[in-house]
Amino acid sequence: MSQLPDGFWHDNGVAVYDYPPQHQPKYQLLGWMPVEEFRSLKLSIAISGKMLTPIVVDEDGEIIDGHHRDLAFVQLTNEGIKIERPVPHILKGLSEEEKRHFALRANMVRRQITRQKRREIIAEELRRSPDLANQWIAEISGCDGKTVAEVRKELESRSEIPTVATFRRRDGKTCPAKVIVPRTARQAEDVRKHLKVIGTDVSTCSPKMIKFLADEKARNEAAASLPPITLKDIDIRNCWFQDLDLAPESVHAIITDIPWEQDFTESGQLAELAAMADRVLVPGGFLVTYSGQLYLDVVMAEFCKKLKWGWQLCSSWEGEASIIHHRQVVNKHLPILVFSKGEWKKRRKWVDRLPPTTKDKSLYRDQRPLPEVDYLVEKFSDPGDLVCDPMLGSGSTAISCFRLNRRFVGSEMKDDIFKRAMARLHKEVRNDEPQSDHAQQKEI
Asked: pTM above 0.90?
C-alpha cells in the first residue's frame, strides 16, 4: 500500500480538485463521471498504489479508454503519491468509428447507466450512423436488439433518421434492414420471381411491396424502351367531339373539362360524350373530367349509365373566389370526377387533394393549370398510351401528353380557341422538330 501524505484524508474521502475538467476529450463520449464516483476511483488507486487497468490509446497517443484513471494518476502524482502505472495498451489500425465503439463498449460496462440514459446513447449512435445493424449497436450499448429496434422506430416516426434499406454489420457485410417472410408457399414463389426482376434492391419485408417494386421496374423499363413522342403523335382537330371518329377501344384515358352550362347537359351532348367514352375507351380505361357543382348530380348520373363511378379529386386555387349567388356560396374548389370502363384498373397510389394553384385565364376562360393536368395525365395513363381530350380548350392536355410521352388526340370546335391551342403547342415545342413535323391539324 502506498504512503498517503498528511491531510490527504478528510471527511468526504480523498481530496478532489479541478473536477470535472473543462475540456472534453475526443473519446470521452459519456462525459465525466459524477464527482463522488471519481473520488472513489482515486481513493482505490491511492490505496492500492497502482493502476490496475492500463489506459488504452491509439497510435497517436490519444486516449480511447481510461480518461478517469489517467486524471486520478496525474492528481495523485502531483500530490506526491507514488503510483505504479502499467504501460498503455496501444490499439492500431482502428477507424474513427471503431475507436468510438471501443470507448462506448468499455464505458457502458463500467458505468452505472440508467435505462433512459442507455436509450439516449442508442439514439445518438443511430443519428450518427442510421445504417448500423441493430445487433451491432446492441453489443456496443450493452442491451438487446429489441431495445435498439424500439429506439430506431421512434426516431424514424419523428423523421430524425431515415429509413434505410440495408444494415451494415460489424463484420463489414450488409444485410436487408428487414427480412422477407412469405406466409405461404405460393407467396414465397412469387417473391423469388419478383426478386429476379429487381435484384437485391429490396427496401421492405412486405412481399406485396416486393411485387410493387418489380412491377414498377418493369413499367420503367417498358417506358424507357418506347420511342419518344413527336408532334406527329399529337393530333388536334378543329371539330365537334362527335366527329372525332375514333376506333373502338383505342383510347386509354379521356382527360377533359366538360362545359358546365345547363345547355350541355340538357341538349343530349353529355349523354353523347358518355356513349363515346364507353365506345372508345379500352377495358379499364379512365374518363377524368373537371365538373361544375350546380349540375353535378346530372353529370354523375349520366356518366354512370355507361361507366363505373371511381373517385373524386379536389382542385383548389389561391386568390379570388367564385361567388355562386343563388346558393350563397363562396366557391374555391372544383371536383374532378374519375370514372372507369368496367372494373377499376389497379394503379400506383395517387392523392385526391391537389395543391392549390393560381388561376391563369390568359388564353381561355376555362383554362386549367398545367401542373394539375400533368398530374392527371401521369396518374391515369402510362407512357405510350393514347389520351383524348374531346373539349381541348387552350390545349393543356395536349401539352402534358407531349411532355409525358403520351400520344394524343383531341378536338376543339371554336375556331379562335383552336388557333390559340395550336399556337400554344407550337410555342411549347417549336425547337423540337422541323416545321413540317408539327402537330396534325384537321378541320372537319
From this structure: no
